[in-house]
Design a protein that fits this description.
The protein is of the alpha/beta class. It has helices at residues 13-21, 41-45, 86-99, 103-112, 116-123, 141-151, 156-170, 180-189, 201-212, 216-226, 231-249, 266-283, 304-313, 331-359, 380-390, 413-426, 454-468, 479-485, 506-510, 514-525, 530-534, 567-581, 584-597, 608-616, 623-629, 640-650, 654-665, 710-722; strands at residues 370-375, 398-403, 434-437, 442-445, 539-544, 547-552, 631-633, 681-684, 694-696, 701-704. The chain is globular, with a radius of gyration of 31 Å.
Length: 730
């Protein structure tokens, strides 16, 4: 906010405008680039409306256009000559601070921000150069930063003069397309720190509206220019936009803003501009800031399902929904959408089964409402795959697991146990479906050819069931897997369309086979003669069941030598061969299996990294966070037994902490919302202290006898959590 001067320096924008309106008689020719225009509030609000590009059931983003694409370039008007340098400006500020005379600084600010032409005259690196490319905005970023850093420490009349000048520029009557100087001015104005103050939000909203309404080609330039902004400034811009959205949704002082019905375009405009920064962020590797920095946690408190249904129902209209900009929605909020969407599908499928049964005059059975899995522990994989194969029509019903010969009733705990044991066995190297890479600590699909890939489909269905039933799995797939799983996010109607194929890079290979990727990286950077020293062709070799087989990366690849000129193509084809082509049938079966359960438009909202979090949860255990959120029944958190318990648990090794989590909850993974989402409870067991602790995994509940000392508690707890397989009834 603004730090100097009276606390209510900009009490409301309306008051400021009222004061300014008293000077209306001074208005001259409106088209003069440096003429000061004083608007009334009506003019401010009646700027051209923004037209949203809402695509049905697709996320809105800025399409990165080809570099050669240029917007129509209107003639640039000649700029005024301004010679002030960073050093000159800093000297002026220092003199003003020491003398108290801010006239020189005031004149600089009021002149510079009086029009878009003046902004360019002050901050353009070279006023004689057009700077019409995406590679260089031509903005003197250092000067912009110095001027804005000093602005908040100037007297209020200086700060008000800047805002008045910005209003001038926004009210200019535009004729024809925007020039690159106009785009530069927008880029500079967005960085104004005054827009962190709610009293400036009316002006800020109109700035955002004009930027949002620019052409796609203009947006293309702004995206590429934005990626050159420093990380600190970039994050400030994003945070300012997120704060603007949050405070418009939930204003601390509603009277500060116009009524919501009169400014429904505020949030859509801000979301569109935020999408430009999101696009810029995605163009850089690594990104400028984490994708999680775009999350707006305020949206966790709105009716997300209404947003989701609006997006599904009105996707082709101009009706706004945050689902059009999924990068703003947090993973916790997306999980809620997916859970509720899954629940609605479960209810719908169960209702249909009931109706079908009644229509055939058959007696309804409660079991028909569930996907009932009956498996033997000794034949876990074969029984599970048989059950899933036979009950494909029931995959979207609520999952219920029974272990043959055990009396446990599945209220959620047996399901978690089944997933954990099944995944552990399927991914064992001896099973042969997946290869474990020790260097990267992850699994990847075996490239061995076989006659039937149905088991891969069933593994995909298993992973889909976990997401559908909100179960986290201990699966170690590389990020590339989840990128392929969303390629495309909705199963295509045409079965001839390739699925699970995505653009892969050397970075993706590094995450799976780091040693091979390092070798290919060395090839790319080799300074000698590649053809003579490596003597390689566009042909690669793989061992399959003890037999070496050769594959051409392109037609007649065995006759094409790898040279300094074509080595990039060789590396790209090799990576594509390893991560797409050799495992295509395996991954396609896996893809169809996953989407046979998780067929939801909600998947369009997710990034690959978010799918991984939904499937696997987080491996990071914060037992202190668990302690803070734990509920007690029969105990108080100050009781001696509870203090002994947490002393012991916080001193456990990571392996023992995971065993405790598995013992009490049925999974050793942390859900999306963190430890607090476990709803972990410790209950007092009125049994003898000779007994071991007991867990109700369906309810994430640990029943703890009141052991007499810490040593006894630790001994009994370790025995209990280290021998925890099987269920019984009390």
């Amino acid at each position: 906010g603004l730090e100097r001067g009276a606390k209510n320096q900009f009490s409301t924008f309306s008051n400021f405008i009222t004061t300014v309106n008293q000077k209306k008689e001074g208005i001259g020719n409106r088209n003069s680039p440096t003429q000061h225009v004083i608007p009334n509030i009506k003019n401010v609000r009646d700027l051209p409306p923004i037209c949203l590009d809402v695509r049905q059931k697709q996320r809105i983003s800025v399409d990165t256009l080809p570099q050669e694409l240029k917007a129509p370039v209107p003639p640039e008007p000649s700029l005024p000559i301004r010679t002030k340098t960073v050093k000159d400006f800093q000297d002026d500020v220092e003199k003003a601070k020491s003398s108290g005379d801010w006239k020189a600084v005031h004149d600089f600010y009021s002149t510079t921000f009086d029009s878009f032409l003046e902004i360019n005259a002050a901050f353009k690196k070279d006023t004689n150069s057009p700077f019409n490319t995406t590679e260089d905005s031509g903005i003197n970023a250092k000067f912009v930063n110095v001027v804005y850093d000093a602005l908040l420490n100037t007297p209020q009349d200086v700060q008000k003069s800047v805002l008045k000048g910005i209003i001038n520029g926004l009210l200019q009557e535009w004729k024809g397309p925007r020039t690159k100087d106009d785009l530069r001015a927008y880029c500079i104005l967005l960085q104004n720190p005054q827009f962190s103050n709610t009293s400036t939000y009316v002006i800020y909203a109109h700035l955002l509206r004009q930027i949002a309404a620019l052409t796609e080609a203009d947006h293309h330039f702004l995206v590429h220019w934005s990626k050159k902004i420093s990380q600190k400034r970039f994050k400030q811009l994003v945070d300012r936009l997120l704060q603007f959205i949050s405070l418009r949704l939930f204003p601390a002082k509603p009277e500060e803003f116009p009524p919501m019905v009169k400014c429904t375009w505020w949030i859509p405009s801000a979301a569109k501009v935020l999408s430009l920064f999101n696009a810029a962020n995605s163009l850089i590797s690594p990104p400028i800031i984490s994708y999680t920095e775009f999350y707006n946690s305020t949206l966790d408190h709105i009716d997300l399902m209404e947003e989701y249904h609006n997006w599904q129902c009105y996707g082709n209209s101009h009706r706004f929904s945050f689902c059009q900009y999924p990068f703003i929605i947090s993973i916790a909020a997306k999980k809620v959408i997916i859970q509720r969407d899954s629940e609605q599908q479960m209810i719908s499928i169960a209702r249909q089964s009931l109706v079908d049964k009644v229509s055939r005059r058959q007696k309804p059975d409660m079991n028909m409402l569930f996907l009932n899995m009956k498996v033997r522990r000794t034949h876990l994989v074969s029984d599970s795959l048989d059950e899933l194969s036979r009950k494909r029509a029931d995959l979207k019903k609520k999952l219920k697991v029974t272990f043959v010969g055990e009396a446990g009733l599945d209220m959620g705990g047996l399901t978690k146990e089944w997933f954990l044991l099944l995944i552990r066995q399927i991914f064992h190297p001896d099973y042969g479906m997946f290869t474990y890479h020790k260097d990267s600590h992850c699994h990847w699909f075996s490239s061995f050819k076989c006659d039937n890939y149905s088991e891969f489909r069933l593994v995909g269905a298993l992973m889909g069931l976990a997401v559908y039933n909100s179960i986290t799995l201990d699966i170690r797939f590389p990020p590339c897997c989840y990128k392929k799983l969303l390629s495309p996010p909705i199963v295509p109607c045409d079965h001839n369309t390739l699925v699970g194929i995505c653009d892969v890079t050397l970075d993706d290979l590094f995450q799976i086979m780091p040693e091979l990727a390092h070798g290919l990286s060395e090839l790319l950077s080799y300074e000698g003669n590649v053809e003579e020293d490596f003597y390689s062709t566009f042909q690669v070799f793989q061992e399959e069941f003890g037999v070496i087989k050769s594959y051409n990366l392109k037609p007649n690849g065995d006759k094409i030598a790898v040279t300094n000129q074509n080595r990039k193509e060789y590396v790209q084809l090799y990576v594509d061969f390893l991560l797409n082509k050799t495992i295509y049938k395996q991954f396609a079966a896996f893809y169809y299996g996953f989407h046979s359960v998780c067929a939801s438009y909600a998947l369009l909202l997710l990034r690959p990294e978010e799918v991984e979090i939904l499937v696997c949860g987080s491996p990071e255990l914060d037992m202190s966070a668990l302690q803070r959120s734990t509920q007690y029944e029969g105990y108080q958190k100050t009781d001696l037994t509870i203090r002994y318990f947490w002393d012991v648990v916080l001193g456990f090794s990571l392996d023992l902490q995971k065993k405790l989590l598995h013992f009490a909850t049925g999974s050793d993974r942390v859900p999306v919302g963190g430890m607090a989402d476990l709803n972990f409870k410790i209950s007092k067991s009125e049994t003898s202290t000779n007994w071991l602790p007991v867990a109700h995994t369906c309810f994430n509940q640990l029943c703890l006898p009141p052991y007499k000392n810490k040593k006894e508690l630790k001994q009994k707890l370790i025995i209990g959590i280290s021998n925890a397989e099987g269920f019984g009834l009390e």
